[in-house]
Design a protein that fits this description.
The structure is a homotetramer of 136-residue chains.
Chain A lengths: L1 E8 L15 H16 L4 H6 L2 E2 L2 E8 L8 E8 L7 E9 L5 E10 L1 E2 L10 H7 L5
Antiparallel strand pairs in A: 1-4, 2-7, 3-6, 4-5, 5-6
């Protein structure tokens, strides 16, 4: 299992007139934390795209418990609990405030897709190499 | 049951470098369509907030089947299948392209909340009055 | 001269905790109105990109006089006062509320750029053909 | 004069289908860097709002020279060259990539406004106290 935390400071643009982070922006926070989690194990999502493999999202879900507010310093935890299965990969997310209260949690399921023809494909070899040690 | 369609034109800002609408932006499209659905039965979400009742989102889920692209004219269908239960209300969404292909679908569960003390509250009377005829 | 109005409804995602449209979102409104203005004279920005010409922005400016609010129905006026000069083209913008008060105004200067090598290029022939009748 | 640098990593949500950061997103980057610049001299924009003073933007301008791309680590430099004059305050911005190339620069002019009645007001005393040492 991989667990990685990323800090995200809530900016003014992301907060709505209730004074809460707009509900759709958490999918952006999940994306940022997902990229940093991959980087932490030596994988660059950017390079993977440049080499012709993209990861579109197939499914996403979010459960909101408490609202985040402007200027909050959030901790976004990403959990990878399993290796990719076939062409799919699951990520889970937990967003905490600076008092370690769980604000929301969610998941995304992504696919590996060839950029050239937009067809599903297996994960790149480097991807599996970097992930595998965490699942032995 | 209430079914209402809203057209949304995909703008440049909403599309990512894959050429697809960024996955988080659909929650914005859902919000726009939700507001228009309420407007279509004589309910103004804006006025409700001005009168002290807000509707934060408790849960959301999305299933992506096909990507929308820049300048696509989407049809976002909102389905309200049940009256609010207690302080909660469910909405379902279906996004179609101009060929009537289903691109993605999802749901949100919202709560009614008093702006004054951020406590859950029942839906305003006008809200139930406007909804009820569709569920008799 | 070309003058074209586009209506834009302010969504919840675009409003900040002051209750005002976030200042950066007007550049998105300008983009939407720019695209509709071109469409109104038979030009598709989408098709132009597909045919290999992009229009990145070189300069932008905005002057804010009054704030727009959630659910406001804005009228975004685009003014094209001159034909493209060389590889550049200027657009001006005026945003009005439903009482015809000017909320803000601005401009953008865009370039024509070949997608293949990211070099400046002249406007496509069709572009000039459609614009010219308005400037005779 | 105050000069302060803030690092911002470009996320996927912020990039358009040209592969460039969408032009409107730089106003968000400017906002993030402005907040961090104030924090660096002991000022919390959040606390100022909580104490009843807001800073809406009056004018903004941007000049784009090179595009930023996905996953770039940008350095956003904020320059405060003068103390607030009356109810207004100017900020300048320079965005650099990791090779220290200037990608774009811009400015914003903000006003101090009382939250209670939305009227212009002088900067809070603490604000001037923290700024003044940099301009002696």
């Amino acid at each position: 299992m991989i667990v990685h935390d990323t800090e995200i400071r809530v900016c003014y643009a992301d907060v709505d007139q209730m004074g809460f982070v707009y509900y759709g922006n958490y999918l952006k926070y999940y994306e940022i934390a997902r990229t940093e989690t991959l980087r932490s194990i030596g994988l660059s999502y950017r390079r993977m795209e440049e080499e012709g493999v993209m990861m579109p999202v197939l499914k996403a879900g979010l459960t909101y418990r408490q609202a985040a507010r402007y200027d909050d310093l959030l901790r976004v935890r990403v959990l990878i609990k399993e290796l990719p299965k076939g062409v799919r990969m699951d990520f889970e997310y937990e967003v905490y405030d600076s008092c370690n209260r769980l604000l929301n949690h969610g998941f995304t399921q992504l696919a590996f897709m060839r950029a050239s023809d937009h067809r599903p494909c297996p994960p790149p070899a480097i991807f599996m190499e970097r992930l595998r040690p965490f699942f032995d």
